[in-house]
Amino acid sequence: MQAVPDSPAIGGQDEWTRAPGTLRRRETAFSLSLVAPALILVAGIYLYPAVYTLILSFARFDMAALEIGRWVGLGNYKALFANAAFVDAIWRTIYFGLLIAVGATVSGFLIALLLNEEFYGRTLLRVVVVLPWAVPPVVAGVLWGQMFHADVGFVNALLFRIGLIENYRIWFGDGRTALHIIALAEVWKAIPFMVLFMLAGLQSLPPQLHEAAAVDGATAWQRFRHIVFPLMLPIIIPLMLIQFVWAMKAFDTIFVLTRGGPAGQTTTLNYFVYVEGFQSFDMGRASAAAYSLLVVTLGVVLMVTVLRRYAALRKATA
Amino acid sequence: MTGSRRQRVAKAVFLHAAALVVVFLMAFPLYGLLLTSLQPESVIRSRELSIIPQTLYFEHFRAVLAEGHIVPLRRALVNSTTVSALTAVLCLLVGLPAAYALSRLRVPGRNVILGALVSVYFLPTTIFLIPMFVLLVRWGIDDTVFSLVLAYTGFILPFVIWILKTFIDRLPLQIEEAARIDGCSHWQVMIRIVLPMARPGVLAAFVFAFILSWVEFLTPLIFTSSLRMTTVALGMFRSTIDIQVGQQAAAAVLTLLPVALLMLVCQRLITQVLMSGADK
User: By the CB < 8 Å criterion, does B115 face chain A?
Assistant: First the structure.
């Protein structure tokens, strides 16, 4: 975001006669009074709880007295990492996040490339592609749940019709399949965002590059491989990271489609926090799990950023 | 010449085929949901692939909207509208002055504030919900409209400030400077000059805040417990009995409809305001 340069106070005649320091201080006081309510609200709802959760992660919380019962040090973290279900959830969450990030990026990029071409009906396609954006995550869950419904779902009916399956499948009965269906719902939901931003990126590429390359006899594939793709990478990578971070927070679709089941096989870290905190009411352990999720998220983002810097550096020195 | 012409035809065929596949994947699930909500349970349960409806059946909507249905959808619609409207108004009341100051005035630590506002979107919501829930229960205000409005405002405010600030940044400075020279105070400039000029941005921010409150799911799931306080997004998952597929589809359509209508009406405004932030 680009910051507007500090605009000096433009005062009336009388104000100029005062010392400039007073004027500046008055403007600062005024601007602070404008920002203060927002800051207090955001700090109260983000900062205070975030710190409190961190403190809670080292304690046992007494739900009856609604206060911290006793300190357990790293006890909550130790208990979590000794729990196979939690460790599985970590790996599952990373896999789930990468699946959605890559899925949404690849499909979003392909659709953006398509929309960047001239053809009849392009405007209509653009409207249709943006549709899922207007769909609340809960509804996306309901919708894909009904598509893959064991008895009345369209997918079973279609696959049965064309002879790919002999019996209706219970899609959500198998953990692996269920996890991928949830990811599908999330990707479907994420595509409009990706397409809009990638299309804006594609349209900002200078057209002369294409023309020059075409004159030099480059094929469409070569133009894509050596011009469009490298130029789009600085847009694609951040979008992919944003999508990854959002996927780590996915909750609604998991709740609606599987409630983390069967046997916890679609429980991601975020859902794990919910179960620990608001079904088992173990707030200390839930807080520790929430901070583990934060560390995992930041870890992956950091890794991608470092890898990218390293790749850019190697390219520059090669 | 014929070679390049054949190539062009092949390209057109390929593009249209790809477009058809995309349309099917993106729109068909939505069409399916709408269709299910408008078909009697017997048709839904039959194993026929019925893609074009023979009849339209509105009973599911009537059923879920009836008083005393296990999913109190009518009540939920009132709750969601109240909470979303209050949240959007509160976000604007608090967000607009902040956005104006961050855009136009000297604010100590502005970049830190802006960075902090953006970064909260990358943190998992559950980190904030645990202590908030504890506090709300301790104060005895869980399961109220107020608790939801408070939480939503906190969650949505950074986004609203960001939208408004980006918008105000692009307004021409000269008019405000002229008003200042004519003796208007900063406060008057904000209300009389900036607010009218920023109207599209304000409208977009209102719509976003309303929609984001409307679709919120995890917060009401945790903060509310009674059926009386349920929101639309949550409503169909509050009953202990699974409702029929057709009624579930109808409830989902009713959850979706206000958001879709708002987006449709404000589509140009929303993409314009959102994409203007993208090039920064």
Answer: no
Residues carrying CATH 1.10.3720.10, chain A: 85-317
Per the CB < 8 A criterion, the answer to whether A168 and B59 are in contact is: no
Mean pLDDT for each 10-residue chunk of chain A (318 residues)?
43 47 76 87 86 91 83 91 94 95 96 90 88 89 90 85 85 92 95 92 83 78 86 89 91 92 91 92 92 91 85 78
Query: In chain B, what residues touch A42 (CB-CB under 8 Å)?
Result: 116-117, 120, 154, 157-158
CA angle A119, B276, B110 (to 5 degrees): 160
Phi, psi of A68 (to 5 degrees): -65, 125
Question: Among partner residues A4, A128, A142, which is closest to B23 by beta-carbon distance?
Answer: A128
Amino acid in position B178: A
Per-residue pLDDT tens digits for A143-189: 999 899 888 888 888 888 888 888 888 889 899 999 999 999 999 99
Q: Is A217 exposed, middle or buried (0-12, 13-18, 19+ CB in 10 A)?
A: exposed
**For A47, how many CA atoms within 13 A lie in the half-sphere containing its CB?**
11
Contact call for residues A294 and B127 (beta carbons, < 8 A): yes
d(CA A30, CA B255): 42
Residues 13-52 of A with CB under 8 A from B: 24, 27-28, 30-32, 34-35, 37-39, 41-42, 44-46, 48-50, 52
Q: Over the Cα atoms of chain A, what is R_g? A: 26
Cis upstream peptide for A262 (omega within 30°): yes
- Could you please state the CATH topology (level 3) that the domain comprising A85-317 is classified under: MetI-like fold (1.10.3720)
Alpha helices by DSSP H, A204-280: 207-215, 220-223, 229-248, 252-257, 269-278
Which residues numbered 138-167 in B keep a CB inside 8 Å of some CB on A?
Answer: 138, 150-151, 153-155, 157-158, 161-162, 166
- In terms of CA atoms, which chain B residue is nearest residue A147? B29
ipTM of the complex: 0.87
Burial B104-116 (b: 16+ CB within 10 A, else e): bbbbeebeebbeb
CATH of B69-278, one of 3.20.20.450, 2.60.40.10, 1.10.3720.10, 1.10.10.10: 1.10.3720.10
Kindly list the domain boundaries of chain B, sorted by start residue.
2-57, 69-278
Question: Which residues, at least 6 apart from B70, have a Cβ–Cβ distance to it below 8 Å?
Answer: B239, B241, B243
User: Could you write out the DSSP letters of every residue in B67-113?
Assistant: TT-SS-HHHHHHHHHHHHHHHHHHHHHHHHHHHHHHHHS--TTHHHH
